[in-house]
Amino acid sequence: MACRISELVLDCAEPERLAEFWSKVLGYIELAREDDGSIEIGPPDAGFGGPQPTLVLSPSDAPRTGKLRLHIDVNATDRDQDSELERLLALGAHPVDIGQDGMENWHVLADPEGNEFCLLHRRLPPLGPSAP
Length: 132
Hints:
The protein is α/β, with parallel strands linked by helices. The chain folds into two domains: 1-59, glyoxalase-related enzyme like domain (glyoxalase-related enzyme like fold), CATH 3.30.1900; 71-122, Roll (2,3-Dihydroxybiphenyl 1,2-Dioxygenase, domain 1), CATH 3.10.180. It is built from two helices and eight strands. The strands form two sheets. The chain has a four-stranded mixed beta sheet with strand order 1-4-3-2, covered by helices on one side. Strands 5-8-7-6 form a four-stranded mixed beta sheet, with helices on one face. The longest helix has 12 residues, at 15-26.
């Protein structure tokens, strides 16, 4: 038997702001709110325990120091990489330089709180009832 990633937890200063951003990026909806201010978002048709992990935005006022040791990679599902890059930038992502040489086929971005993530080149089929 093996484990499966069921949720990713991201400490952040403004859970509401990041929940809104990541919901738009991933097509997720709000699933739950906790008394501590945490917000869980996930796929609308599956929620927790589905084929994709949920994302928990957990409030923290501890400052981030250094590069994240884990980051999220995303792939477009319904458009090419250039169009998806434009969409992510319009949502509030911004490019970051972590030492790329310019020859990469991915883009390194940061969410509104500066958490790095990558937009990969390959387009993936969507998951869910509409997937082929």
